[in-house]
């Protein structure tokens, strides 16, 4: 997880954060800029990511050395699914202020969208090294490791996140999925059941449980959960996938 001197705060030595880089945008903008920032933040909160990105881009051009503005631009571009430009904004923020954890988290998430889990491991790992109690980084690192097939290492990160915050439902959900990917279906079901039974359960949690049940051969319950969130054609498609996956697991050759 240690990615070298350039990626960890442990190697900071005599380096110091540049004042402009870490300053909140509102403190370095004029009245017009602060109004634009307020509009951009409101647009992003409302889901109007394209308009927000346009406003942030203008602000970035007026304050090119402010990492926080670059992160906001990256977040808006991520929301509009312009992942390549988002990655560029996050990289610029990191070049300005390598201590900026939000930039690294953003770049890690974008790397996953771009199917670059190795890069995501580097970015999430750097945040974990710098801020070990950041559960977002630990869960993100776990997802990247799972994507690379490194399930044991991934589960360590999810469990660490749960040790930090036992109520972290995202960590628990991803831990369950990681267990399922390793064939530990009973353990996965045990983790997912209380999440799904909660009033705040999400579609992802329910469909992860449907996956586990389907892989266990409990087609009836898997279908019932599937219909909670999906169209019938998607439910049938998932059931076919579960059946194929079960047969594949049965037929998988055992090494001598």
UniProtKB/TrEMBL annotation:
Keywords linked to the UniProt accession: Repeat, TPR repeat
InterPro entries for the chain: CellSynth/LPSAsmb/PSIAsmb, TPR-like_helical_dom_sf, TPR_rpt
TPR repeat intervals: 67-100, 135-168
SMART domains: TPR
UniProt-listed Pfam families: TPR_16
Keyword Manganese tagged: no
PROSITE patterns: TPR (PS50005)
Coiled coil: none
Keyword Repeat: yes
PANTHER family according to UniProt: LIPOPOLYSACCHARIDE ASSEMBLY PROTEIN B (PTHR45586:SF1), TPR REPEAT-CONTAINING PROTEIN PA4667 (PTHR45586)
Name of this protein: Uncharacterized protein
Organism: Skermanella stibiiresistens SB22
